[in-house]
Design brief:
This protein is globular. A hairpin with a 2-residue loop joins strand 2 and strand 3. By secondary structure, it is mainly alpha-helical. The longest helix has 27 residues. The strands form 2 sheets. It has a two-stranded antiparallel sheet with strand order 1-4. A two-stranded antiparallel sheet has the order 2-3. The termini are far apart. It has a domain of 214 residues. The chain has 15 helices and 4 strands.
């Protein structure tokens, strides 16, 4: 019996050798396996993880707070990029969806204190339903007309939330309790940072898997040639509605996190239309249709006021730039940067980094 097993093993070895092209492949070394794992995860993901770890370990409380706000904004920007960058649908109703997600958490916790995970899930669900309704105009219009339609949705939604808040608690707004994730209270900024960093990594992995999958390629086809995609058998209607729903759910999650993180919700926090413009700037500046562009854009836009404030003090420009003018300077810088990206580098900072990488490799 042992002799028969040895013969079977010897017979299987030439077959395995033939399948590998006629030569035996040596076992992969630990370094080769590590390189394969890095290529599978992606260098940008590893760079982002290194940056997150560095901020978590060495960042001050101020920068931890900025990083937390940037991660929350990045979640909403990823949702907008799915719609704008991958599907080609222009929407400026994201500020209203942020407000709806925050208000769902606030109202639920006012009536009865609900678990954190359930509150975030219900915010995503409600915003997904709203996104499905908003998607109906997208089936007939596109481009500037869709942008105007979603802008109208923004003002209608903010008006409805203002009326609801005024009738319930007045202008003071809603108070949101401390977030509790399976017994862990998200009270300290660093605890929030670890939680949000984990959520961001999970969302990015899922987002990359989505855009590289068959539905993601269908969205790209709709973005480039809707009529040709329809002729190819792609359901344009179903994919547009799905993109709106998934995008709205992500933005709703960002709104729920904002409510729990700040601890207070009011329509006044979302009524300014510049919030929608800022999210557009995040997507365009980081790189339309890229996986990590929204994260980079959110980090730049959220941290820019603090950087301007630090430069103002460091360069001795307190007399030239007052505290109230810092956001005006931020707007000017963002406007110039976005205009430059649209003209010279449509893929944003991600595309700029890729171009620089190719230039360095070519010089080698």
């Amino acid at each position: 019996m042992a002799q028969q097993e040895a013969v079977e093993v010897d017979d299987a070895r030439p077959l395995a050798t033939a399948r590998r092209g006629g030569s035996e492949v040596p076992p992969r070394s630990p370094v080769a396996r590590l390189a394969g794992a890095v290529s599978h995860v992606g260098v940008p993901m590893l760079v982002m993880l290194v940056v997150l770890v560095a901020i978590g370990i060495g960042g001050s409380q101020v920068w931890i707070d900025i990083a937390n706000l940037a991660i929350i904004a990045a979640l909403g920007a990823i949702g907008l990029d799915l719609l704008l960058g991958h599907t080609g649908l222009i929407s400026v109703g994201n500020a209203a969806l942020l407000a709806i997600g925050a208000f769902v958490v606030a109202v639920l916790n006012r009536e009865m204190e609900v678990p954190f995970v359930l509150g975030v899930a219900l915010s995503a669900l409600v915003c997904g339903i709203v996104g499905m309704i908003v998607a109906l105009p997208a089936l007939r219009i596109s481009g500037l007309y869709l942008a105007i339609a979603t802008m109208g949705f923004h003002f209608v939604a903010i008006w409805a939330l203002r009326e609801w808040q005024t009738g319930q608690v007045g202008d003071s707004g809603f108070t949101v309790p401390i977030a509790n994730v399976f017994g862990l209270e998200l009270l300290d900024l660093r605890v929030w940072f670890v939680f949000l960093a984990v959520v961001l990594v999970v969302v990015l992995l899922g987002y990359r898997a989505l855009v590289e999958s068959r539905p993601g390629r269908a969205l790209h086809a709709i973005r480039e040639r809707p009529a040709l995609a329809q002729m190819s058998g792609i359901s344009v209607t179903r994919h547009k509605v799905t993109a709106f729903v998934v995008s709205s759910m992500l933005i709703g999650v960002a709104g729920a996190f904002t409510a729990y993180y700040i601890g207070h919700v009011s329509y006044a926090n979302f009524q300014n239309f510049h919030i929608a413009i800022e999210y557009l700037a995040m997507v365009i500046l980081g790189g339309l249709g890229t996986v990590y562009g929204p994260v980079i854009g959110a980090a730049v836009i959220v941290s820019l006021p603090h950087l301007v404030r630090e430069l103002r003090v460091g360069l001795g420009l307190e007399d030239a730039i007052s505290n109230t003018q810092i956001y005006l300077v931020q707007g000017a810088v963002v406007g110039l940067a976005v205009s430059a990206m649209v003209i010279f580098q449509p893929r944003g900072l991600v595309g700029l980094g890729e171009s620089l990488g190719r230039l360095v490799r070519r010089k080698r």
